[in-house]
Amino acid sequence: MSTETLLKTPLHALHLELGARMVPFAGYDMPVQYPLGVMKEHQHTRDQAGLFDVSHMGQIRLTGANAAKALETLVPVDIIDLPVGMQRYAMFTNDQGGILDDLMVANLGNDELFLVVNAACKDQDLAHLHQHIGDQCGIEPLFEERALLALQGPAAVKVLARLAPEVTRMTFMQFTTLRLLGVDCYVSRSGYTGEDGFEISVPAANAESLARSLLAETEVQAIGLGARDSLRLEAGLCLYGHDMNTDTTPIEASLLWAISKARRADGARAGGFPGADKIFTQQQTGVSRKRVGLLPQERTPVREGAEIVDADGTVIGSVCSGGFGPSLGGPLAMGYLDSAFIALDTEVSALVRGKKVPLRVSKMPFVPQRYYRG
Amino acid sequence: MSELRFTEDHEWLRAEADGSVTVGITAFAQNALGDVVFVQLPELQAYAKGAEASTVESVKAASGVYMPLDGEVLEVNEKLDGSPELVNEDPMGEGWFFRFKPADAAAVAKLLDQDAYDRLIKANAEA
C-alpha cells in the first residue's frame, strides 16, 4: 500500500513533529517508535507513564433497550449483567467457534454500550453487527468522530488526576464519562500493557490538545507500536490476527477465562452465540492444540511463524508471537502446541535459521500485571 | 590502508595492519534496525562472499549480516554476546562483529569508499 492511501489519525501531525518513525499498520500511517527507541519507550512505560495513540482502533456505540441482549447473540460473554460503568473483554465468534475479533465492551448506562474493536477488523465487525443485530439496536460507528489515547504506567493515575481528580477512585475495568480540558471523554481504567493506566476516547477535534497536555507532564513520553507490542507480549495479552484468528477457538487460544460463567454450558444463559456447540464440546473433551507461553532458553529471539519441534524433530506447533522483552531482559514468545506438550516446563525447540533453539513452556504473564484493583 | 570501505548492505570494513579485515554494521544500519537485542556471531570458518555469516536481532526483526568478500573468519567480538547494545552505542568501534582474512587482499580496496557510501545513503533517503 502506498503512503498516499494510508489513513491518518487525528494525531498524525503530532507524531511527525515528535520525530516518530512511521509505518503502515492496519491501513493507517502509525508511529512504530519515537527518537527514544523501542527499548527505552518500553522501560519508560513500566517505570513512569507512556502515551499511545490507538485511534486506529474502531469505536462503536450500540443503543437501545435490546442492545445488550442483541450483542450477547454474537459473543460468549455476559453483557446483560455487565454493570453500568464497567467494561469487559469479549470476542466475536463464528459458527465454527473461531474468533472473528476481540473487543472491549463497556456499559455506558441509558441503554448504551461502547465497543472498541481492532483496527484491521473494524469494517468487517461493523458489517457483522449490522447483519446480525442491525434490526435490534442502533449501531453507530465513531471511526472518524473519536480518537483513542492510552495513558499507561504506574504514574498514569497521578498524571490524569491533574486533569480529573476523580480518576483516582476508579479501579481496573471501570468505565466513566469525564470532562478532560472541558471536553466530554469516555475513560476506562484498562489497557494493553499489563500496567495500571487508562484508555481515553476523545472527540477527534480535541485529541491533539489533550495529547499535548498529557505529553507536557514530566512523567509522560510518547510511545510507539513497537513498545506496545513488547509490553503486551510480556503481559501475556493476545494480538488478534497473530495469537488468535478465525481458525482458533477461545479454548484453543487459552481464553476460556473470557467466556462468562452465565454463557457456559452449565450457565444461566448457556450458549446462544455462534459456535457455542463446538466450543462447549472442546471444553469438555479437550483440544488438540493450545496457545501457551514459551521462554527461549538462549538469547536468540524466536519470531512469529517459527516451527516448534519435539526432541525427535517432529513438528508439534508454531510460534504466533515472539520477540524480546525489555523488562524480562530476554526473549519470549507465545505459540500453539500439540496438547501433549502444553504442561508447564515441558521442553521443546523452535527452529530458527535451521538451528534448534530450546524453549520451555511457561506461565503467563511473563512480567507481573500491575492493574489497580482498589 | 586504514580507511574504511563499505558494502551496499551497510557493513563497514577496516583493513588491519596484519592483513585481516574487521567488519561491522554502519551507523545508518544500526539506526534503521533499532535497539539490538541479540547478535548471532559467525563460526570461525571460511565463508563465501554473500553468505549470511551473522544475524543481528533488533526489537523489531532479524537481519542478516553478509560476508562482504570470500574469506575466513578469524575472530568474533564476543562482547556482543553479553552486550548487544554496543552495536547501537558504538557501531563503528566497540560494536564490531568479526575479523576475517580475505581470500583476495586486493578486493577490499575495490569496495565502496566513504564518498560512494555517503552517496548511497543519500540516494536511499531520497528514494
From TrEMBL, chain A:
The keyword Ribonucleoprotein does not apply. It catalyses: N(6)-[(R)-S(8)-aminomethyldihydrolipoyl]-L-lysyl-[protein] + (6S)-5,6,7,8-tetrahydrofolate = N(6)-[(R)-dihydrolipoyl]-L-lysyl-[protein] + (6R)-5,10-methylene-5,6,7,8-tetrahydrofolate + NH4(+). Coiled coil: none annotated. GO terms for cellular component: glycine cleavage complex. It holds the Pfam family GCV_T_C. InterPro entries: GcvT, GcvT/YgfZ/DmdA, GcvT/YgfZ_C, GcvT_C, GCVT_N, TrmE/GcvT-like. One of its GO terms (biological process) is glycine catabolic process. Substrate binds at residue 199. Its EC number is 2.1.2.10. Residues 11-261 form the GCVT N-terminal domain. It comes from the Bacteria. Belongs to the GcvT family. This is aminomethyltransferase. It comes from Pseudomonas cedrina subsp. cedrina.
Automatic annotation (TrEMBL), chain B:
Residues 20-101 form the Lipoyl-binding domain. Its cofactor is (R)-lipoate. It comes from the Bacteria. Keywords: Lipoyl. One of its GO terms (biological process) is protein lipoylation. The modification N6-lipoyllysine is found at residue 60. Binds 1 lipoyl cofactor covalently. One of its GO terms (cellular component) is glycine cleavage complex. InterPro entries: Biotin_lipoyl, GCV_H, GCV_H/Fam206, GCV_H_sub, Single_hybrid_motif. The glycine cleavage system catalyzes the degradation of glycine. The H protein shuttles the methylamine group of glycine from the P protein to the T protein. PANTHER family: GLYCINE CLEAVAGE SYSTEM H PROTEIN, GLYCINE CLEAVAGE SYSTEM H PROTEIN-RELATED. The glycine cleavage system is composed of four proteins: P, T, L and H. Belongs to the GcvH family. This is Glycine cleavage system H protein. It comes from Pseudomonas cedrina subsp. cedrina.
